[in-house]
Design a protein that fits this description.
The protein has about 350 residues and is an alpha/beta fold. About 45% of the residues lie in helices and about 15% in strands. The radius of gyration is 20 Å and the shape is globular. The chain starts with 6 loop residues before the first helix and ends with a helix.
Length: about 350
């Protein structure tokens, strides 16, 4: 497994260990707690051929969760990790006799700059996007699916906005910007988005592996043959929320003032374009406060049809948005109380 010490990857490792599975992690930062529980840890990056080869030895299923993520950065850095790293992992896995390859992609691979409402897997992969993350992940997904053969079955999962207790990215970023007074509603604030609770995302990973193991499923009622290998699947909670209503529900639950100030999408795109130009020409550290990609993501619909995942992976979200949000708020309130008492 790659990315086994990250948010999604660690939850997946926990579930695999609970099921009595033997787990190998390829990673740069050791995880002593997992090693103590019997995890084989191969230290190295996905860009290190020797480490990748060692990690694939004796493995039947590869869960490729690692990636370079973000909305800003040099294209060559994203390409090296997301494309070349994935390509090398595919080659090493095939050479080692790995049978199944479960690739974590992203819905951003179908970015087209427009609203995506009940979008399904028929949408073409993006070839042009103002962020290198979606374009490099699209190339990687295409190569993963093209590598599918009977002795080496591959699948790509596209989880959207993974969240839950322990999330180090999405929710902390929202809270930090809100508390700094830097969060603005982009557009009319009525856009709907899909998200996926981390436990549901893990269910999808395990369901995809099982679908590749079975490979050929028959619908007894209709006599139809269904296959998961060589295909991509959107993975969400199946409950689109009005993005800014959900963000404000979270803020209110934590005793924070809701976001009320807004900026038009046109203005946000202009600000993002100007910021990108400044960061690129002056080589400023960090990422711009706004980019064109982020502006579009915050203002447009992004929700997806789960028909294929339900039918061919047996995927069904277990943790609802309401349940997950309640648990997250309770956890964060507990963390805040703990920090105040220290």
């Amino acid at each position: 497994m790659t990315g086994g010490t990250g948010f999604l990857g660690r939850r997946l490792v926990e579930r695999l260990l609970a099921g009595g599975r033997t787990v190998t992690i390829l990673g740069r930062t050791p995880a002593p707690d997992l090693v103590a529980r019997g995890v084989r840890f191969v230290r190295g990056s996905i860009e290190d051929p020797a480490a990748v080869k060692a990690a694939c030895a004796g493995v039947e299923s590869v869960f490729h969760v690692a990636a370079k993520v973000g909305v800003w950065g040099r294209e060559e850095d994203f390409f090296r990790t997301n494309v070349l790293g994935t390509r090398g992992l595919l080659e090493a896995a095939r050479a080692a006799g790995v049978k199944r390859f479960i690739h974590t992609s992203t819905p951003s691979v179908v970015y087209n700059g427009r609203d995506l409402a009940s979008a399904d897997e028929s949408l073409p992969l993006t070839t042009a996007c103002p962020s290198p993350y979606p374009t490099t992940k699209a190339v990687a997904e295409r190569e993963v699916l093209a590598a599918n053969i009977p002795d080496f079955r591959t699948v790509a999962l596209r989880p959207h906005l993974i969240w839950g207790v322990g999330d180090p990215h999405l929710v902390p970023r929202i809270l930090a910007r809100a508390r700094a007074g830097r969060l603005r509603i982009v557009g009319d604030g009525r856009n709907r988005v899909d998200m996926v609770h981390v436990e549901n995302a893990v269910d999808a990973q395990l369901g995809a592996e099982e679908a590749l193991r079975c490979c050929h499923l028959i619908d007894d009622k209709r006599g139809l043959s269904r296959r998961a290998d060589g295909r991509a699947f959107f993975i969400t909670n199946g409950e689109p929320v009005v993005l800014w209503d959900w963000i404000n529900e979270l803020l209110r639950g934590l005793g924070e003032p809701p976001v009320t100030k807004n900026i038009s999408l046109r203005a946000a795109l202009a600000v993002g374009g100007a910021a990108e130009f400044l960061w690129r020409t002056v080589s400023l550290a960090g990422e711009p406060p706004m980019t064109r990609f982020v502006a579009a993501e915050l203002a447009k619909d992004h929700w997806f049809d789960l028909t294929a995942a339900r039918r061919d992976l047996g995927y069904e979200p277990r943790i609802s948005m309401a349940q997950g949000t309640e648990e997250l708020i309770a956890h964060l309130r507990g963390v805040d109380s703990s920090l105040r008492s220290e």
